[in-house]
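Entry:
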Amino acid sequence: MRSKRQREPPCLGSPTGNGANSGSALRSPSRSTSCPTYSERFSNCTRKFTQSALVAHEVSLGFIEGPTLRRDVRTEVFLEDEIVLMVPAAHEWSERGFIEPEELKQERLLMRERGSGTRRVVEMALLKRGVRTKQLNLAMEFDSTEGIITAVEAGLGIGFASLWSISKELQLGSLRAVPIHGIRIMRHLSIAYPPGQEPQGTTLAFLHFLRSRQGVMRAAR
């Protein structure tokens, strides 16, 4: 991910924060606008890789789900997100106020792959309400949230995803978020960077931009 023209490490971002994070490297801010814009390069990496890359100074900034237990990585909460059950607009549940957890056993469920952070927290939340993974009709597994969203839109089943990740589909009406009685899955997305001196240059400009947008992001929910 390094460039010969860059003197500072690239900035790695993972806005999904779901265990298999999407990363972006930021180059230089545009001078033609009041807020910084960047040329981006994307890669997929795990939370563990993101933190290791930060410590090794291979990247200078990242997003991870929740806080970190590592002392050599600093985090600050950027955004609160919610993982919701999504169904196609034509699904019989789309107009219901909520469903019972037991009803999930009746449907074709599309899930992230084993090891995914999103899958882990969903399974834990369902287990607390007495629903085990082996009791579900697990029809397909995907290695990306985008794959599940596309499949649910196509009517191949129902699935779980970040509320932020389906905001466009909810606005367009192609998907519906259906509450599950007694279950609400909240998580925090955190900005992560190495300890010590705050990031410099382009990375610092982007960090300031993120901090300035926190209130706007919360209000947009």
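The mean pLDDT is 79.
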